[in-house]
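$ run holo --ligand "MF3" --emit tokens
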Amino acid sequence: MLGRDRIQYKTPDQVRLMRAAGLIVADALQAVRAALAPGLTTGDLDRVANELIVGRGATPSFLNYGRPPYPATLCVSVNDEVVHGIPGSKVLRAGDVVSVDCGAILAGWHGDSAFTAVVPGDSERDPELAKTDQDLIDTTEESMWRGIAAIVAGERLNAIGVAVEDFVGDRFGLVEDYGGHGIGTEMHQAPHVLNYRTRDRGPKLRAGICLAIEPMLTAGNPDTRVLSDEWTVATVDGGNAAHWEHSVALLEDGLWVLTAHDGGVSKLTELGAPVSSLATSA
Ligand code: MF3
Ligand code: CO
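-- output --
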């Protein structure tokens, strides 16, 4: 089983440290969402997040990551861009579908989270297409929560992919080229988290596992390509895409969504998933 032996299981005290990093990511994304407006560039959004993270004594985890070194604090992926869009001089327009992904390191521990939203304001987009965009965004978010609620001790890792795939059904394209991951003292750890059903059900989930759950959905065909900047992932057919992500800890008594301001309490309760007492006492 891929990665079964390399999973880093965290103690409750280590999860508390990850929560501190997760809250900085949550605050950075909240600040970006509040700033989102037509006429801003994607680089402007990047500065909002960078200043918040650095101001809180944390380090942006995407900056200089990988090869070629990723050049920014955020990934800002617009319309047909799925993930890993590099912020820069691109000007946002009302009605654009914008996915914002953010990671930070505090005291050696990582948080990683993303949301997708429509740029507010008077949009020239066809109302029917605008409705589909919002449905795409909402379905992606809900599929993430279904995946999170499937993180249950004793169940297998692929329960997450089954939950995401079954929720999405044939309503939208489900990107298979990228997925979620373990997270802890590195941004990307074992195991890789697929957003679809496989024959290999994967390792058993147990307390201490921390996972970034991040489904990506498309309005049309889910096939992707990487642009010439060597980072930006876009749909091949040019249809819009959405991406949501949370970093989640499985504890003995339930889940703690480390990058959600409320610890995931409201959504997990709605879905009937157990919430860890750490999420309500912290
Ligand atoms: N949330 C993204 C991921 O988990 C962030 C990676 S962007 C990178 O893959 F630039 F840091 F690679
Ligand atoms: Co991630």
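-- notes --
The pocket of MF3 (ligand 1) is lined by residues 62, 65-66, 70, 75, 84, 101, 103, 112, 114, 181, 212, 245 (CB under 6 Å).
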